[in-house]
UniProtKB/TrEMBL annotation:
It comes from the Bacteria. InterPro entries: Class_I_gatase-like (IPR029062), ThuA-like (IPR029010). Transmembrane segments: none annotated. Residues 3-211 form the ThuA-like domain. PANTHER family: GALACTOSE-BINDING DOMAIN-LIKE SUPERFAMILY PROTEIN, SECRETED GLYCOSYL HYDROLASE. This is ThuA-like domain-containing protein. Gene3D superfamilies: 3.40.50.880. SUPFAM superfamilies: Class I glutamine amidotransferase-like.
Length: 214
């Protein structure tokens, strides 16, 4: 049985406890044994090197450098990393080691909760196969991203809420390699109920399975 660890905490506005519960259920349905932790010290546990998958759900907050480096080493050695929204890519803003691992960092969501479109860029990728571009209402994340990411979906900013970014095409879903490990990320899912949007639930589940070490 493959083993996964979910670590949740940080800013409560992203429903980290509810998201952790939902994702634990999805992973159990896929045959994973799931461990839940609520402190960043869990990333420093030597035992995480034996896991198949790690899911951070920990917006903002701080992480000790040794714990971040242990997490990076675990993924570099083959453990998968997957997550969504600020729970993964607005965590530990001071840790460049963690940002290098994840492939992106949130910097803004102009207009806050707005209507926008998610466009699939690789509809034939196994993670996105059968899905179509869709409209969504939530935070439209503006991010600083790693050009090495393999982008699976994007969104285009209209400039209505920040005129200087009109026409900017921003990655929404990506996957990447980090050493021997696989990393998956989706910027969708500001609140827990959004994870039940069929497209979001499908791409998240497939992305976690892709990232997980066999």
């Amino acid at each position: 049985m493959r083993k996964a660890m979910i670590v949740w905490g940080g800013w409560p506005g992203h429903d980290p406890d509810l998201c952790a519960s939902m994702i634990r259920g999805w992973l159990r349905a896929e045959g994973f044994e799931v461990r839940i932790e609520t402190t960043t010290e869990a990333f420093g546990d030597p035992a995480i090197h034996d896991l198949s998958l790690i899911i951070p759900i920990y917006t903002m907050s701080k992480i000790e450098k040794a714990d971040a480096l242990n997490l990076c080493a675990a993924v570099r050695g083959g453990v998968g990393l997957a997550g969504h929204h600020g729970g993964m890519c607005d965590a530990f803003r001071e840790s460049v080691d963690y940002q290098f691992l994840c492939g992106g960092q949130w910097v803004a969501h102009p207009g806050n909760i707005i209507d926008y479109k998610v466009d699939l860029t690789k509809p034939d990728d196994p993670i996105m196969k059968g899905l179509k571009s869709f409209e969504h209402r939530s935070e439209q994340y503006y991010m600083h991203v790693d050009p090495a990411n393999e982008v699976l979906a994007t969104t285009t900013f209209t400039g209505e809420h920040a005129s200087w970014i009109e026409g900017v095409v921003m990655p929404v879903v990506w996957k990447k390699r980090y050493g021997a490990g696989r990393v998956f990320y989706s910027s969708l899912g500001h609140r827990a109920y959004e994870l039940d949007v069929p497209e979001i639930r499908t791409l998240m589940t497939r992305g976690m399975l892709w990232a997980a070490r066999e």
